[in-house]
Design a protein that fits this description.
The complex is a heterodimer of chains A (about 80) and B (about 625). By secondary structure, chain A is α+β, with helices and mostly antiparallel strands. Chain A has helices at about 15-20, 40-45; strands at about 5-10, 30-35, 55-60, 60-65, 75-80. Chain A has a 5-stranded mixed β-sheet, covered by helices on one side. The longest helix of chain A is centred in the middle third of the chain and has 8 residues, at about 40-45. With about 625 residues, chain B is of the alpha+beta class. In chain B, the strands form 6 sheets. Chain B has a 6-stranded mixed β-sheet, sandwiched between helices. Chain B has a 4-stranded mixed β-sheet with strand order 9-8-13-10. Chain B has a 3-stranded antiparallel β-sheet with strand order 15-16-17, covered by helices on one side. In chain B, a hairpin with a 6-residue loop joins strand 5 (about 80-85) and strand 6 (about 90-95). In chain B, helix 2 packs across helix 19, helix 2 (about 35-50) packs parallel to helix 25 and helix 17 (about 425-430) crosses helix 19. Chain B starts with a strand and ends in a 6-residue tail after the last helix. Classes of the chains: A alpha+beta (about 80), B alpha+beta (about 625). At the A-B interface, loops of A face helix 8, helix 9, helix 11 and helix 18 of B.
């Protein structure tokens, strides 16, 4: 059996509402327990996101793709893209 | 209504000292070389202003220029520009604004206005197609920007005014038009130094018609389609305003926190566009015409307020460690009424908080506490107590009291709300931008941090990217079409839209020369050519457009070097060069020296950052 890791996904830009998450706290995000070695894409599906190609994902300040492998304790922010102000 | 085909080609030259004006013609060669707008304004002042003059003296001039596309129905083209010598930086400053003044001037029959001299008493100007009337401003001098505009708008369709900050020569006073501002570099103080409270234009006298209606309509249709398809222009901005950037900056580690000591904060979501939209039930309140709709209004305690832009939220919110959106709305409105740039105000307040903490000055300002901030904003506007020193900006205040290491400015202009340690190419852009720590010179942070199209920490090819983006955006600013249209123009053409982002990142990092030249920015020059009835040759027309942008950028740089700007000024605050941040897993600083020399070589500057003669000659810039 694969070892389980815990990751945190923070949803912004109203994505939490699309997922119909109740009492969602954006500072805490959603904690997920997933098998070790899984990619972000897998975790997002597990969280209930179906169309994730149009969002931007960041881990430790750098943009990552949905193909990135997740590690124990990773915190990923999921947002709609924006430009500059 | 009388029709103008293409453009008026007429401008007003106003001498406030003599209370006289002159109608002159825009040189068509200059218009074509510099595209109009910002580029033309710089050229007009280059031909007329001597270097070394006092920015607050009567010899300084302000050029107001309306773009070629204004009034034609091109998307987001209701913008105008002001160009002058900045009292904050001592260099040239250009500012663009989406308020109604530009359209009123253009439809009064003028493409540009140049103001020089000084009125003997407070005055405002009334402009219509016949010319200028000089009117006493006794009744409106001392009034805030809202009250002054309300008075002037009884006479015309659009106005610009200064508030008390401009009258009191606050070095970062701005100019208001509607609820939009010519924000940066103290253009409002230059108007104040001339005893000029405002200008109102009658407007609605001429209808602007593109010379080639068919080609214009075709390009315009494609443009609107791109804007409405692009997830940034039709999604985030429309839903949450530019404040959509707060969570994005926080996630990418470039949000200014505590005078740029940190790049992210756990409470940032409280001041985000999403939170404001939900809490304040926001609705659109934008420039006109606008297809993006990024400006918003909201309701707080039963009263309507303007929702601050991202820069204001960053500089007066997270950078002061304030996460109460209603509080930032209040400070934003104070700055708007007094007529002060919120970026410089926020940056200077953050310096004052750190200087107070370190015992260099005595104020009751404290990071994380709103106490005393409203009062200090008022004291700055009216130059009272410590406010008098802070009205000079963070550079001057830190020279007087110490704390230059943490005065976050470049060339005297306070930094916008993107920490360059999370986007090092943008660090080079901040250091070399003509008007100081300006985020709009290259907007490289967007490619590096937000869009993931360039590695945020790599230096390879960054000088080339900065140069390319500066050239394109200088051209766009000369068209006076909103810079935000760049997301639609850059990202919607099929070639780039269908290329996966990681591949674009790889191409940009390894073959940037090829990658950026593959970008299709043809929509902008197509519109420009159609309005003037000129033949647009695909690809060559686009290259000519980018070269015109290069010409505008280099002319501005050359004008700045005549004011003494050189390599010594192309630097960053020490904080970014030597201090890492706790929010980074691996601490990063900006390796500026590694990029600067290469940037100069690409630009055709000498080792001291001065444009070479052959560069000026190649760009048809006459040496004075």
């Amino acid at each position: 059996m694969a070892q389980m890791i815990t990751v945190r996904i923070k949803f912004f830009s109203g994505i939490d509402k699309e997922l119909k998450l109740e009492n969602y706290d954006p500072s805490k995000g959603m904690s997920l327990s997933i098998p070790s070695g899984k990619r972000l894409k897998w975790a997002l599906k597990h969280a209930g996101l179906t169309d994730f190609s149009s969002y931007a994902y960041f881990r430790s300040g750098e943009r990552i793709s949905t193909w990135s492998k997740l590690k124990q304790g990773d915190e990923v922010s999921c947002l709609k893209p924006s430009g500059g102000g | 209504m009388q029709e103008v085909i293409g453009t008026n080609n007429r401008m007003l030259e106003i001498d406030l000292t003599a209370k006289k004006f002159q109608v002159t013609e825009v040189d068509k060669k200059d218009r074509d070389l510099y595209l109009g707008g910002k580029g033309l304004g710089l050229k007009l002042l280059y031909d007329r202003m001597e270097p070394g003059l006092d920015p607050l003296g009567p010899d300084n001039m302000i050029a107001f220029t309306m773009g070629i596309l204004m009034g034609t129905g091109a998307p987001c083209s209701g913008r105008f520009e002001a160009i002058t010598k900045s009292p904050l930086t001592g260099a040239m400053v250009t500012g663009t604004c989406g308020g109604p003044f530009g359209m009123a001037v253009k439809t009064s029959g003028w493409d540009a206005i140049i103001v020089k001299g000084k009125c003997s008493a407070p005055t405002y100007l009334y402009i219509d197609s016949k010319g200028v009337q000089f009117k006493p401003a006794k009744g409106i001098w001392g009034k805030d920007t809202e009250a002054a505009q309300a008075a002037l708008l009884k006479e015309g369709a659009g106005a610009i005014v200064i508030g008390p900050a401009g009258e009191n020569l606050v070095k970062y006073a701005n100019i208001a038009s509607g609820h939009r501002f010519l924000g940066r570099g103290g253009i409002g103080a230059v108007m104040g130094s001339k005893n000029l409270k405002g200008i109102v234009a009658r407007g609605n006298e001429f209808k602007i018609v593109p010379a080639n209606k068919k080609k214009f309509a075709k390009a315009n249709k494609r443009f609107f389609k791109f804007i409405n398809k692009n997830p940034i222009t039709s999604g985030s901005y429309r839903s949450f305003g530019t404040n959509a950037n707060v969570n994005l900056s926080n996630a990418s580690g470039i949000l200014p926190v505590r005078n740029f000591t940190g790049g992210s904060h756990g409470e940032a979501h409280k001041i985000s566009g999403e939170t404001m939209a939900e809490r304040f039930h926001t609705k659109y309140d934008t420039c006109k015409p606008c297809a993006i709709l990024c400006g918003h209004r909201g309701t707080i305690n039963g009263k309507e307020h303007h929702i601050p832009e991202y820069e204001t939220i960053g500089l007066m919110g997270s950078n002061l460690e304030i996460f109460d959106p209603a509080q930032i709305v209040e400070w934003n409105e104070l700055c708007s009424k007094y007529g002060m740039d919120t970026i410089s105000t926020g940056g200077t307040l953050a310096w004052a908080m750190e200087a107070t903490e370190k015992g260099l000055i005595k104020t009751n300002l404290k990071f994380g506490s709103p106490s005393g901030v409203s009062e200090m904003i008022r004291d700055i506007a009216y130059r009272k107590g410590m406010g008098n020193d802070l009205a000079e900006g963070s550079r001057a205040a830190s020279k007087k009291y110490g704390g230059e290491d943490f005065a976050i400015h470049v060339k005297g202009l306070e930094m916008a709300a993107y920490d360059p340690r999370g986007c090092v190419g943008h660090g080079l852009s901040y250091a070399t931008a003509n008007r100081g720590a300006c985020h709009l010179s290259s907007v490289l942070f967007s490619l590096e941090a937000y869009l993931g199209m360039a590695s945020p920490y790599a230096t390879r090819w960054k000088p080339f990217m900065v140069k390319f983006m500066e050239n394109v955006l200088s051209a766009v600013n000369s068209l006076h079409i909103c810079l935000f249209t760049a997301y639609a123009v850059f990202l919607e053409p099929p070639l780039i839209k269908l290329t996966p982002v990681p591949l674009i990142k790889q191409l940009n990092q390894n073959l940037s020369l090829v990658a950026l030249n593959l970008m299709d920015v043809s929509l902008w020059p197509e519109l420009w050519h159609a309005v003037l009835g000129k033949t647009y040759i695909p690809y060559l027309g686009m290259l000519k457009f980018i070269k015109a942008g290069e010409r505008v950028h280099v002319l501005e740089r050359y004008m700045n070097t005549r004011e003494g700007i050189s390599r010594k000024d192309d630097t960053l605050p020490r904080r970014f060069l030597t201090e890492g941040r706790k929010c980074d897993q691996k601490e990063h600083t900006v390796p500026l020296e590694k990029m600067l020399g290469k940037y100069y070589r690409l630009r055709g500057y000498d080792a001291n950052g001065i444009p070479k003669k052959r560069t000026l000659k190649r760009l048809n810039i006459a040496i004075q």
